[in-house]
Design brief:
alpha/beta; Rossmann fold; 6-stranded mixed beta sheet; 4-stranded antiparallel beta sheet; ABC_transporter-like_ATP-bd; ABC transporter ATP-binding protein
């Protein structure tokens, strides 16, 4: 395709416009952004600035109205919904503020979920889940249900689930927003360690102190990068 794979993420004049009744609302306006493999980026901005929409576009949870998006050498803005789901499952890990764990499943089963869409044996899945548990320090909590865990432990499970498929990109949306300061620090240290090990991290946060710990900060305002 002639695309440079040195940029893991390449957005070129990407806009996202939502139809709200008779009115069009521009959430992103001609945003261009390049993210290299191994970077650690924080996206900041006030509510409604476009930071969450930008993260959703990067994560292939939404598609641009106009513009082009190349992820890891593939033009993803032109893919079908089926192909986009394949990209999300194989290349992107998500960590959300609200954890999004399934209460009826234990820790190991929650972490294993992304692997169920891949052609892996149960032994292969079990090995990957065990490795992911080790990365977040929850080896002894695998059989517990989410309600038996603290908030920090639940977020560790969410991070392990995001990592279990060895994604190219880890996207974190306010990952410490529901946690106290001490627990939030523990989660930040895990994210920073993962980045030091080579994981590309893009984090949305309203916390400027945490944003300044990233290697690069992107500030959004009115759907644009300042």
């Amino acid at each position: 395709m002639g695309e440079s794979v040195s940029s893991l993420v390449q957005l070129d004049t990407v806009s996202r416009i939502y139809a709200m009744g008779q009115t069009d609302v521009t959430a992103l306006s001609a945003v261009s952004l390049s993210i290299c493999a191994g970077e650690y980026i924080a996206i900041t901005g006030t509510s409604g600035s476009g930071k969450s929409t930008l993260l959703q576009i990067i994560g292939c949870l939404d598609t641009p109205t106009t513009g082009r998006y190349v992820l890891n050498g593939t033009r993803v803005d032109e893919l079908s919904d089926f192909d986009l789901s394949h990209v999300r499952n194989h290349q992107i890990g998500f960590v959300f503020q609200a954890f999004h764990l399934l209460p009826q499943f234990n820790v190991c089963e929650n972490i294993e979920l992304p692997l169920l869409y891949r052609k892996l044996t149960s032994q292969q899945r079990e090995k990957k889940v065990k490795e992911a548990l080790g990365k977040v320090g929850l080896n002894k909590r695998g059989l517990h249900k989410p309600h038996e865990l603290s908030g920090g432990e639940r977020q560790r499970v969410a991070i392990a689930r995001a990592l279990v498929g060895s994604p190219s990109l880890l996207l974190a949306d306010e990952p410490t927003g529901n946690l106290d300061h001490k627990t939030g620090e523990e989660i930040m240290h895990i994210i920073e360690r993962l980045n030091a090990e080579g994981v590309t991290v893009v984090m949305v946060t309203h916390d400027l102190e945490k944003a300044q710990r990233a290697r690069r900060r992107i500030e959004m305002q009115d759907g644009r990068i300042l």
